[in-house]
Write a structure and sequence with these properties.
single chain, alpha+beta, seven-stranded antiparallel sheet, five-stranded mixed sheet, 8 helices, binds zinc ion
């Protein structure tokens, strides 16, 4: 009713925000939620609609935003630290909820801005996003490289260094499949099926955590070695549609790695450039000759100059060659354009029990 079709995107946040008092009168249970938290829900809806209309304007065909029921809604945000949510030692005070003990592993740095409470597979977490976090720069090495995402390996640098995919990926995949089959065996709506579902969620969470941990470590290792890193600006969303399964998985993971690398680079005073992909795997890094090859051809063999080199290493060399040229023409590093305004998020475990 508030956000009917074809209503445009202008009034979607502010108008309902003004109607909130009426809504609270109609639904007394909303009075039990902090007002800023309710306003944040409207902000989220607004964001969804903005994105929806933006994508329509771009000629895409997005799905119309759908109502999300309670079991699809996993977090609430206190948009102003100090107003409804405040951290007092190892206790988080939340207005209308109470004082909650927190497992705080590191102290907060910078100025806390927002607090988001979220439910994950293994319990509740509070994420505090902070602004003005002091950066710690890494020593300069005066080295630069190009990196390419591999199919069999995680990535390869222009100087031929290979980072393998961690072995635990395979183990985790098997465990996920097993947990998935367990759900399928159990009767719909049964308690046992619910339990199996919770187990699958925890397995997924574990895989995500292992992957993120790996990405953080590899990003840091690269930034210790190089001052400037060029990589290919793959359109992750398009690539995931690729029917080649292994490739689509590695590309999805690549997207996260790129974000982490750019963010860490910004903090470390280093630079990461995502350059538009243009024939990086097809062209010869030795002489520039275009050598067309399908995805299954893993070695680049140049009929022109006789260069024989691994396909991905050839691509990494092309990326390293194209990068500085684009930078010369004013191309901006992703480590500046995207990440710096992103606040640092500090996540802590809440001492709530159960998953209610
Ligand atoms: Zn060649």
């Amino acid at each position: 009713m508030w956000w009917g079709r074809g209503q445009g995107n202008s009034a979607s946040y502010y108008q309902p925000a003004m109607e909130l008092p009426d809504l609270k009168a109609a639904c007394p249970e909303y009075g039990e939620v902090h007002s800023q938290v309710l306003q944040d829900v409207l902000r989220r809806v607004d964001k969804t609609y903005q994105a929806f209309f933006r994508r329509i304007a771009n000629g895409e065909t997005p799905g119309y935003p759908r109502f999300q029921g309670a079991n699809r809604y996993h977090s609430v945000t206190y948009p102003q630290y100090g107003n409804g949510a405040v951290l007092d030692g190892s206790v988080l005070s939340l207005s209308r909820i109470g004082r909650i003990p927190i497992r705080l592993h590191r102290s907060l740095h910078g100025t806390p801005k927002t607090v988001t409470i979220s439910r994950e597979a293994d319990g509740w977490y509070a994420s505090c996003s902070c602004a003005d976090v002091p950066t710690e720069s890494l020593p300069s090495t005066k080295r630069e490289t190009g990196i390419d995402v591999g199919l069999k390996v995680f990535l390869i640098t222009a100087d031929g260094k290979i980072i393998e995919n961690p072995r635990h990926y395979r183990t985790a995949e098997k465990q996920l499949a097993k947990a998935q089959r367990r759900i399928a065996r159990r009767k719909k709506g049964s308690e046992r099926r619910k339990k199996a579902g919770a187990l699958l969620k925890r397995k997924h969470q574990k895989v995500q955590r292992q992957r993120r941990d790996f990405h953080h470590k590899m990003a840091l290792a690269l930034l210790h070695t190089y001052d400037t890193i060029y990589l290919e600006d793959l359109q992750v969303r398009n690539m995931v549609r690729n029917r080649h399964l292994a490739k689509s998985i590695s590309d999805a993971s690549w997207g996260q790695f790129r974000t982490i690398l750019a963010f860490k680079a910004a903090c470390a005073g280093k630079r990461v450039f995502a350059i538009p992909p243009a024939f990086t795997s097809q062209d010869c890094s030795g002489c520039g000759e275009r050598v067309p090859k399908s995805l299954s051809v893993r070695t680049h063999v140049c009929p022109n100059c006789g260069l024989v080199i691994d396909r991905d290493e050839n691509a990494a060399l092309n990326i390293l060659r194209a990068g500085p040229r684009l930078v010369f023409f004013g191309f901006m590093p992703t480590s500046q354009t995207r990440s710096i305004e992103q606040p640092a998020v500090h996540k802590m475990r809440c001492g709530l029990s159960g998953d209610g």
